């Protein structure tokens, strides 16, 4: 149905021409779900936008053909392409909030799409819009069709987007990270819905995602992209059971899971190469544990290994080794984490007792308090020294509010009741020197390392700031010595201290944020979704680093996350939250393997899972 031949997409970057997509070839059948996966910057979304001819002005298609049932869409004049776009090919974007027009009622937006691409008008178009809202699971569609997007939740907006896209009955659907912005339970609903609708309509579906577990549950075939090229195509079963390309194997080994507890994750060293260079050999060679001498000088082609499988790797090329390779992390690192060194004292480091947080709702010119919003409604838990407690639940359940309350970020903004006992004293009552000391003991790492680092300060100044405030006794020489050692501990070079945050990758910035938290030698770090903005291989590096620091320094973590794989891998204890309360808590394995509360069961059942190959 869709046949892409040798597609090349390029853009002008500061350092030269960036070849974002470099010779992509794939075919997708009618009724097939085909997943395009890869880490950020590998060219997936550029491919999707090229299919729709929606590339930004600075980006151009320099070569190739995109055939939709025999016709080359790249050759169509824009007027005809407009009918294809939204008519024959539909697209669902990652962020529904930015894809819907905020000043137009949702029904009008759907009716507009129907009128543009079908013969239906007026009442008939409206009836069809209501029907589609019902089909995507919007309750009371007759009433809600006249609402504006802001009155809908994130999941409902994504449903509206799906209704708007499918109401024109496209032959082919592109879903670009359709559930990345959603919670697991909503994600499950949306993926189930897409699967049902696709089956009913017999559409071709190109699913673009970085989430391999979603792929495992949805796709029939998978293509893995790396540095602008497809490097492996396989059926989903083949891909997850016996990945062939060394990068595919490394990626699957980097995923955190219960089975990998106590051993370091197989982080992939190095970074994706700049796409401004012209390559003489394999693009993965500098990071490949199986690289051979000629990998740096020979360009690997896609080699056909079976009816549904091809791989771009010289191990499988004509005359190649033809042996599946399983890149191991170095032997020393494979010996496993020695968790015996973890302190397990019977008295908790931090005891949260009946914590309640409520935010005042202000109205009118004088901003009088007209009511309260209860964000946290009485929660209690302990954190042991040197251990990790994971706080899980859907967004808006109050996890982040608890984290912020503990690090004293809500003082003056919310009413806080209950106690947070650190060394026997209540954090919420502390003032002056005692509060200063408590701030030293508890630090926080945020989800987005970029927005939490001051872009105008060098890394050294960023790290030194906290040290100066919380350790005023230290002189400049001692501060520098401490920070240089710290940079090494978190895997940054000393020179990195003299650079600005924008000069680093996402993973490196998160290392800086971790170094900033560690600079004052805290006993507890609140980690608020520290890896959710990172790619799998970088996530593995950060999780390994956090584990290593816990072993070496005995620091405890309150780990706030919605990623159950990460929880299984890192948490000693788990507390499950729903609507401001903890519904279940206990040792990690007990809660995750034998959940007692219905909500925990629902949450765990919604998590997409895959059977990991035992490579
Ligand atoms: Fe590794 Fe060589 Fe294969 Fe590239 S071609 S993935 S460097 S073995």
Explain how this protein is built.
The protein is an alpha/beta fold. It is 33% helix and 25% strand. α4 packs across α5. It is globular, with a radius of gyration of 26 Å. The structure holds iron/sulfur cluster. The site of iron/sulfur cluster (SF4) has 13 residues, from loops. Iron/sulfur cluster binds at residues 246, 282, 284-285, 288, 290-292, 295, 300, 313-315.
First-to-last CA distance = 35 Å
Query: Widest sheet: strand order?
Result: 6-7-8-3-9-10-12-11
Given the helix and strand composition, which structural class is it? alpha/beta
| Percent of sequence in beta strands | 15-25%
Topology diagram in text:
Blueprint: E1 2-13, E2 16-28, E3 33-37, H1 44-52, E4 59-68, E5 71-72, H2 78-84, E6 89-92, H3 96-99, H4 106-117, H5 122-135, H6 141-144, H7 154-166, E7 172-176, H8 184-201, E8 204-209, H9 212-218, E9 221-226, E10 229-235, H10 236-241, H11 246-253, E11 302-306, E12 309-312, H12 331-334, E13 350-363, E14 368-383, E15 388-392, H13 399-406, E16 415-422, E17 425-426, H14 432-441, E18 442-445, H15 459-470, H16 476-489, H17 506-518, E19 524-528, H18 536-553, E20 556-561, H19 564-570, E21 573-578, E22 581-587, H20 588-593, H21 598-606
Parallel strand pairs: 3-8, 3-9, 6-7, 7-8, 15-20, 15-21, 18-19, 19-20
Antiparallel strand pairs: 1-2, 1-4, 4-5, 9-10, 10-12, 11-12, 13-14, 13-16, 16-17, 21-22
List keywords for this structure.
Rossmann fold, alpha/beta, six-stranded mixed sheet, globular, binds iron/sulfur cluster, 33% helix, 615 residues, eight-stranded mixed sheet, 22 strands
